[in-house]
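Tutorial, part two.
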Amino acid sequence: MRRTVGFRQMAEGTPADYRLLDEYASEFAAGLPDRLLTALQRLDTSLEGYRVNRLVHSLQTATRAEAAGADDELVVGALLHDIGDDLAPYNHAAFAASILRPYVREEVTWVIAQHGLFQTYYYAHHQGGDRHQRDRLKDHPWYAACVAFCQWDQASFDPDHPTQPLSHFAPRVRRIFSKTVRDHSVYD
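Running the prediction step on this input gives:
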């Protein structure tokens, strides 16, 4: 039987209670790569209307990033960039960036967080919007990186594009999400 804390309210917790919770949290965190790969696999049935499903789209974006010579953190960012489509359809970019944030450099997190805005360049004008919304960030040091990322992203709806399978990227996901977190300020 697994041990539990003695408190009914967090304010009543003891150092031993919080050591126990830290132990369980570490064990749980170790399973994150598998949970992410499962969540990616579920994208094979999401969001109708495109010529490929969201899983294939994510795999194509990661395949393009890899072919362009992106490092592992950016390739994994490309793979996970739309993982929030199922649970956060109107803020999926922030959702994905939140998952990545403790494990990758700030540039990758920013690119993924902003890709939704930057993608409007390709369609906003067809819906009566301003396709140049992203230009308000043109002086940001990672603006060009996000434009480049969105080139891969916007081109990844092609059923005929050679695409690596999820198993190809799984070792990178495991490596990125098994390392010590970079950003410990995850509660802000």
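Residues 115 and 146 are 7 Å apart (CA to CA). In part three we will examine how such features are distributed along the chain.
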